[in-house]
Give the backbone structure.
Amino acid sequence: MSHTITVAGVDVDTRHWIGGARVASARTFTDVSPIDSSILGEIARGTAVEAAAAVNAARDAFPAWAAVSRAERSRLLHAVADGVERRLEELAIVETTDNGALLRSHRRGVMPRVAHNFRFFADRLLELEHGDFGTRGHTQHVSWDPAGPCVLITPWNAPLMLATWKAAPALAAGNTVVLKPAEWSPLTASLLADIAAEAGLPAGVLNVVQGYGHEIGDVLTSHPDVRRISFTGSVPTARRITASAAANLTPLSLELGGKSPLLVFADADLDLAVDLAVEQYDNAGQVCLAATRLLVEETVAEEFTRRFTTKAARLVQGDPRDEGTDIGPVIHPRQLERIDGFVHRAIAAGARAVVGGHRGDGQHYAPTLLTDVTQDSEIVQEEVFGPVLTLQTFADEEEAVRLANDTRFGLAATVATGDPGRAERVTAQLVAGTVWVNCFFVRDLRAPFGGSRLSGVGREGGTWSFDFYCDLKNTVTAPSGWRSHG
Ligand code: NAD
């Protein structure tokens, strides 16, 4: 049986990558393209045996990798970035075929960012400060020691971007990695294994295990040799991982869901606010940061809705490989079902669909805007993870902040206002890991990223990534000839 499939002209190995070798499993799972429901191939369905083998490979490779100089680690990570850039077109088309997100954004935004993930942390590693200082003649030396094997578990909505956002700092820190990509979009992780090997990353430093989270997750997250777990995904899975990691008190970084607000004040540039709102349909709404709750000041709500409706009507749903397409399909029939369920229940509860409110062709869901929703309703409180927004109005600043914060999540918030004083007052009160004012999705790898409340635990990005992936050690050395008194 061949273990290579050809996806949009690109060869992809369907096996795991463990200890520098391709490893098959007895069983497979079927990978289907959301674009046309075509079968892309049969992917290795990992079991406890392969999961444990991957952790063992990471454990065995760790001492040698941890001992590699920072300069050499940095050089190797830049070589991985070079490989990503060389294969950018291939990565982009394979990712689009696998998860249905727009080819143009994979080409121009996502895959360049994947390369940048490696370059940024390769450079940042060299700038980490040891913070040496003296205490009564003694030297205090702070070192960023590698922690050990890291398990990285990622979702399907931005597969390679999220995998490398974790893998790059973990590897830069001198750790080894076991990456478990989502079963709905497993392919680019396999290409990353090829790229890392070509770049010269030693065997066992980066391992990839394919398969279902509920079948192999526990083995990975309860393994006593795993020193860090970084997870991006849903809240229910985070709860299971946390319980499993409790056995060894393995440190966790959790990047979870959201129900973020976009606050539109009457003093805002209304066209800008509408643009920001319509942007929330990107990636068919399957974006953790998406501001899915539009909160609009009463006095401009009618005009905002009119302009929003006009603009949303111009969005082109279609094949994500076409340049002219704005919204592609959702990832999976089950996700489509889930989205439709949310919308039906909301409408049954009294909501009104002023835009969309139904399925589109194939695996598409029509961009949807629901009004007449109540704050405590499911559609306002639960993450849909599809192209579905709600619109509520507020009378004043105090009510806007109250509605914005009245959620179990706290990932992001966006504020549209023309008044800098208001921006300052409102942003200070919002509970969110990231707040944007008159903009959206402007990211910088130097900044901390993560969520409050159910949106996550911990922060990654910049030095915060190294905080998580390193064991910080303080070594105190006495001056020569020093004697303890007493
Ligand atoms: P999910 O939780 O279903 O799956 C995520 C990953 O966890 C997959 O690889 C899956 O195989 C694995 N998994 C499942 N069960 C497991 C278990 N018991 N042990 C270990 N791993 C297990 O999430 P999803 O549906 O793939 O992704 C969508 C969710 O991800 C949304 O809630 C979204 O908001 C969130 N997300 C968050 C961010 C962020 O940065 N905060 C970014 C993207 C997506």
